[in-house]
From TrEMBL:
Database matches in PANTHER family: SPHINGOSINE KINASE (PTHR12358), SPHINGOSINE KINASE RELATED PROTEIN (PTHR12358:SF54)
Protein family according to the UniProt entry: Belongs to the diacylglycerol/lipid kinase family.
Cofactor(s) annotated in UniProt: Mg(2+)
Keywords of this entry: ATP-binding, Kinase, Lipid biosynthesis, Lipid metabolism, Nucleotide-binding, Phospholipid biosynthesis, Phospholipid metabolism, Transferase
Keyword Calcium: no
Protein name as it appears in the record: DAGKc domain-containing protein
One protein family per Pfam: DAGK_cat
The keyword Lipid biosynthesis appears for this protein: yes
Any single biological process term in GO: phospholipid biosynthetic process
Species assigned in the record: Aerococcus tenax
Entry GO MF terms: ATP binding; kinase activity
SUPFAM superfamilies named in the record: NAD kinase/diacylglycerol kinase-like
InterPro entries: ATP-NAD_kinase_N, Diacylglycerol_kinase_cat_dom, Lipid_Phosphate_FormReg, NAD/diacylglycerol_kinase_sf, YegS/DAGK_C
PROSITE patterns to which the protein is assigned, alphabetical: DAGK (PS50146)
Amino acid sequence: MTVIEIICHEEAGLGRGREVLDQVQSYLDDRQQGYRVHTTAYPGHIFDLVPELLDNFQKESRLLVIGGDGTLHELVAVLQAKQVDIPLTYLPAGSGNDFSRYFQQDKSSLSDYLAPLVEERSPKTLPIYHYQLGQHGRRRSLVNSLGLGFDSVVIEQAIKLKESKGIFRKTWGNKLRYLVGLFQSLPRLSLFNCQLKIDGRPYHFDRCALVVFMNNPYFGGGIHLYPLEKIKDRQVSVIVIHDIKAQGILDLLYRIFISHQQESSPYMTHLSGKVVEVEINRPMISQVDGESLMIDQYPVRVWQGQQDFYL
Ligand SMILES: Nc1ncnc2c1ncn2[C@@H]1O[C@H](COP(=O)(O)OP(=O)(O)OP(=O)(O)O)[C@@H](O)[C@H]1O
């Protein structure tokens, strides 16, 4: 008999994880479906918990994860690092849920998320990205985006706002936190030059604010940064925000938040290829799936990978 191993970050989405877990348990109890619950007790707990789980994983075992993008990122990172081919079921419970916003946009009810697992439908393969820092770094994985530059400063500021009191603590306040965080971070905007290599072909950009590898057109919790057409097989998309001056910032904000005409912006370039590399001549504050990372080894090389999901 199938046993579902549930990994849950109860505090995700300011407690939404616990609510979703309760709903999932009653759904599975009603169907007399066996399961075990493993809650994460500290940041990065998944890196200890999942290897233990995998040691006892049976042919009939299934993995279900409840949490925000950060929790999904960590689980996919462990499975990919161990090169185990186990399909996942994902129930979004964060405040941003960018992965779900794009890849699970046809789902709304609990049954939409759980039926493919419970009814043992065939898993579907979704694109993820692998990345490597420096020539000798190990292969790592991500599900949404890897951004070098301003985006990470804004995300750090938005996280501080989430930890503060009042309106910023609301789960629906994600876009507001990001926007306020963005304006508060403008004085810390630091521009850089970068070299890109797309399948071996070189590109150079000056006065850049951000280089972001995007497996998903959304970032920062629902912000539609760039209208990527359907994600192409084995291709990596990179967006560069460049040649920034004061009026460029206003133009970009207007296009991203109001007119949605990013494609004709003189300050934004979208490139894609099978292997994309970026080189910047100084350490950069960065974000991977919404979590901060300091990058000081180059090139950063990105290529597409795959992860199976019950969808
Ligand atoms: N019990 C815990 N206490 C503190 N942090 C935890 C705990 N369990 C997991 N984490 C960490 O919290 C981070 C964020 O988790 P997650 O993305 O699931 O929630 P969230 O930040 O509320 O959601 P969102 O990113 O959508 O706002 C992860 O890096 C994870 O390691």
